[in-house]
What we know:
Elements: H1 2-12, H2 26-30, H3 33-36, H4 41-60, E1 66-71, E2 77-81, H5 98-104, H6 127-133, E3 135-144, E4 147-154, E5 157-158, E6 163-167, E7 172-179, H7 191-204, E8 209-218, E9 224-229, H8 235-242, E10 254-259, E11 263-270, E12 277-282, E13 285-286, H9 292-311, E14 331-337, H10 356-375, H11 377-402, E15 431-436, H12 438-447, E16 453-458, H13 470-473, H14 477-486, E17 489-490, E18 499-500, E19 508-512, H15 517-533, H16 535-539, E20 543-546, E21 551-555, E22 558-562, H17 565-575, E23 584-587, H18 596-604, E24 611-613, H19 619-630, H20 634-644
Parallel strand pairs: 1-8, 12-14, 15-16, 15-19, 19-20
Antiparallel strand pairs: 1-2, 2-7, 3-4, 3-7, 4-5, 4-6, 8-9, 10-11, 11-14, 12-13, 17-18, 20-24, 21-22, 21-23
Amino acid sequence: MAEELKEQQEGQQYSAHNIQVLEGLEAVRKRPSMYIGDTSVKGLHHLVSEVVDNSIDEALAGYCDHIDVTIGENNSITVRDNGRGIPVDEHEKLHKSALEVVMTVLHAGGKFDKGSYKVSGGLHGVGVSCVNALSDHLRAEVRRDGKIYVQEYAYGKPITEVSIVGECDDHGTTVTFHPDASIFQTTEYEFAILSNRLRDLAYLNAGVTLTLTDLRNKDEQGNPHSETYYSRTGLDEFVRYIDQSKESLINDVIHITANKSIPVEVAMTYNTSFNENIYSFVNNINTIEGGTHLTGFRRGLGATLKKYAEDSKMLEKVKVEITKDDFREGLTAVISVKVLEPQFEGQTKTKLGNTEVIGAVETSVREALANYLEEHPNQAKAIVEKVILAATARHAAQNARLKVQRKSPLSGGGLPGKLADCSSKDPAECELFLVEGDSAGGSAKQGRNRQFQAILPLRGKILNVEKVMDHKVFESESVVNIFRALGVTIGTEEDPKAPNLSKLRYHRVIIMTDADVDGAHIATLLMTFFFRRIRPIIENGNLYIANPPLYRCSKGNTQEYCWNEAQIRQFTEKYARGDEKNVKIQRFKGLGEMNAEQLWETTMDPENRILKRVNISDAAEADRVFSMLMGEDVAPRRKFIEENANYATLDT
């Protein structure tokens, strides 16, 4: 009682003594997610982007054309550029080397001096200092004025002075860092994530060469795996890359460049699909939530195309009203703007807020697109005919879309009949299992925790939404059931076609299918559906794949579940060395072969299960892969399967 009373008294004595002042980079280490988004895989790779973006800023300023990124054998990262090199002379106010100031002081850098950088992605001046704070070791090497300068740091603090270690005849900066394992959930870098980012940067900065080398992955001759990224024409090649698995509608890329109040570059084309894919960038930063530049593009696109369609008399016999949204179906576009003082939502820069950008982009698109349409009547006609088809389909889809709207997603009314709902009404603790087949659905319903786990059995294979128009999507019973179960409706204030997740009923949506080829196909169809129709579910980290075991091994009264053959060998060596013939191995070909208890303890119990979270490291690359896997063209799909066959789990 005395200790409790003391704690209560101390809690009531809230005074200046309780106010903490975090010095230097301590704030970053204390709350890393405020600066880099999170400490998961995404945050880990964001560190690399912060350093590379500094090199890209040198390229934007016209001083750098080569950037090399290397993943070390210990998962360290080295970024080397041939820019001007970070200044090393003494800072006039802090009386330290400018290199040390840049590396250890928040909001310090050349990005605030408009004479040093006209435009910059590293707006806040906290990027590289954050990387330093969240690394257990960082080494900065500067080559300038014929000398090589080096300083090393640990956990954001300098452990050496800035010193001259040699002479050189080139210039640039090299930063090598190793992420702090006490901060990040994982410190293992994924080549594919870094590759996607560097590829994007190459397209966005024509003429700049970027390389990525992985010292952890070497061939038989000991040569590390390395890739080079370079684009001669920039956004034109970017759009062609994204659309390479789609059938082109106009066989051309419309490339718009303008530099009035704000430099604007747009590349766009139309394909025969029914999806819109727009990727927007500000000073090379991927604004995944869009912003004012995207608003300006859509306004300019819709107004210009509608005026052309009306002036050309192509809409006279059309019986449905054409809206600006109809001009977005089958559109692929990349928007890149350079803004002197960009206003982002937070350090992770996901949405642009500068209102002056709307008019600049809209005017640029209107003028350039109007000229293109006049000069290319065949392409213009194909686009307008596509728009008319989209409008007709939209009209047909209006009634179908009403099927997924319900008065109250938390009330029982309107829920799919096959849904076994959970009793909790708190979305944060609720999870929905999308289960293949009635048999597995029955076991899942019996084995689940009814408090927070809901089950929706799916009959057969869900519709491949990659190949169908809107009204066909919303006529599918399985699709409608998923929308209803989730509480997702269609249409937001900003976009009438966008999914509305304001009443999402489950924060974990788990795809649970058989561990065979059919199960993998169903899972792919479902992921395609979420990517194309409810992408925020993936972007917000709500979509998971269940990972049921493939085997149950037993010897006598001892049994274990195994997910691969290596675990089977481990079981045999541990419990049956020399007596392998008495080991019984049961192969689960389908979830329905498990009883309710087995399904719970292996695949549904939060204490024991293995879930794989579905994420999008690069939306453009994901779009390309989904189009290739789920589209009509067989050749690229066959090539992909051949190249990735070694990673497949075979049903033997």
